[in-house]
Amino acid sequence: MPATVPLVSERTIELSQMFPQQNSEVQITVQGGESVLLNQRTGQFHRLSVLGSVVWPQCTGTRSVERILSTISETFDVTAARAQSDLLDVLVQLQQDGLLHIEKR
Q: Helix 65-75 crosses helix 80-96 at what angle (to 10 degrees)?
């Protein structure tokens, strides 16, 4: 069964249909081993977690959330459910902060 995620509207969609894309106004800098995003429009900085640092470069608009989840599952020693939950938490936070958007295809 394909992985699904509830959306704010209470609908569910397949993770294979969700494509995160970085906001073009956001720049990334690595400082002391930490990844920091700068939203040039707002002037706000955002420090990425270790997971966020792995997820961010994959948010190109060409990789589905399902494909990113596969990479996360291979990179971190966690259960599939935990990997999905953590990934979705990161993506939702990045989207709420205006750092990326997720397109449904």
A: 120
Dihedrals φ, ψ of 83, to 5°?
-60, -45
What does the pLDDT average to over 12-27? 89
Is pTM beyond 0.85 here?
Answer: no
**Residue 47 located in a structural domain:** yes
* Number of domains within the chain: 1
d(Cα 80, Cα 12) in Å, to the nearest integer? 19
The CATH number of the domain holding residue 74 is 1.10.10.1150
In a 10 Å sphere around its CB, with 0-12 CB exposed, 13-18 middle and 19+ buried, how is residue 62 labelled? exposed
